[in-house]
Design goal:
Number of helices: 5
CATH superfamily: HUPs
Largest sheet: 5 strands, parallel
CATH class: Alpha Beta
Strand content: 15-25%
Order of helices and strands: EHEHEHEHHE
Radius of gyration: 15 Å
Strand order of the largest sheet: 3-2-1-4-5
Number of strands: 5
Number of domains: 1
């Protein structure tokens, strides 16, 4: 079944619902959940102290997103690990899924992405198209 679940979290309502589903599945299967949030790379041209401030703000936001996701997952039999990573969200999710040999990726159908997602395609679509494991999209 799904012993090793990857939950993509971005703070959106759909991602919050996905966290509940991930917790329910982990409780049913006795599995683990790895919660990942990803942020686009910052331009190094920001210079100091702007770059340090932007990094600190992103890490604060990431901690909030991850904490909320863990709370929504709830108590599960296995471990619940978290990671905040820099990079394209879909690519980051796929890399983590591959690195940890996950059985299932769970993510919201609509995230907190910007207007580019309307033109380039959503992060969930990119993950579904390229994942080597099942992907569950949650509304």
């Amino acid at each position: 079944m799904f012993d090793n679940i990857l939950l993509a979290a971005d703070g959106s309502d759909h991602a919050r619902e996905a966290a509940k589903v991930a917790g329910d599945l982990a409780r049913l299967s006795g599995g683990t959940v790895r919660v990942v949030t990803a942020f686009e790379k910052l331009s190094r041209h920001l210079g100091e102290p702007n770059l340090s401030q932007a990094i600190a703000e992103r890490m604060e936001k990431a901690d909030k997103i991850l904490s909320e996701a863990i709370e929504r997952v709830g108590e599960i039999p296995g471990n619940c690990e978290t990671e905040a990573l820099e990079g394209d969200p879909a690519e980051t999710i796929l890399r983590v899924a591959e690195a940890y040999d996950v059985d299932l990726i769970i993510m919201g159908t609509r995230g907190m992405g910007d207007m580019r997602s309307l033109i380039l395609g959503s992060q969930s679509h990119k993950v579904v198209s390229a994942a080597s494991c099942p992907v569950m999209l949650v509304r």
